[in-house]
Amino acid sequence: MGRRIFIVVVITTIVAVIEKFHDMKPRNWHETRIIVDRKSRFQGRCTSLTNSNQIPTLIELFKQDHKRLVKSSSHAYIYAWRTADKDKEWMNVQSGHYDCGESGAGSELSKVIERSDVYNVILIVTRWMSGGSIGPKRFKHINEVGKLSLEDFAQKNDD
Predict the structure, then answer these.
(1) Which one of 29, 88, 105, 133 is at 20 to 30 Å from 15 when CA atoms are compared?
(2) How does pLDDT run across 89-99, given as a tens digit for each residue?
(3) Bridge partners of 156?
(4) 129, 46 Cβ separation under 8 angstroms
């Protein structure tokens, strides 16, 4: 009896993992160059997604694929996302963001996505700090690397 319960638990776990990663393809991150201002560095990257349920898994995959980056950065994954369905036009638009300790940064990235008119994407910006504050200029750099990453994404997805 105990062995059957163990097998059922193992199978249930395997099914849960398969369901979690079922619609996940290998990630093609559109990474920007690193922008440096004094002793702060910023880098943007984005990739496609089909629905908001993928976000936790994408963030986990990002953290696994970029362990050194996550460990060394001050704000490893400031992100925003936007999804929609397309028939003749975009509908059922959903969006959201996460600041990762950089207050207001996630909402800034949401605006970058909206202005870029891109859908079905998650945009992540990483910031490394080592030195004094650069003040509001940090938002300029966060927006810049976000925009560069989205431009690369849009260009490669138009082909």
Answers:
(1) 29
(2) 888 999 999 99
(3) none
(4) no
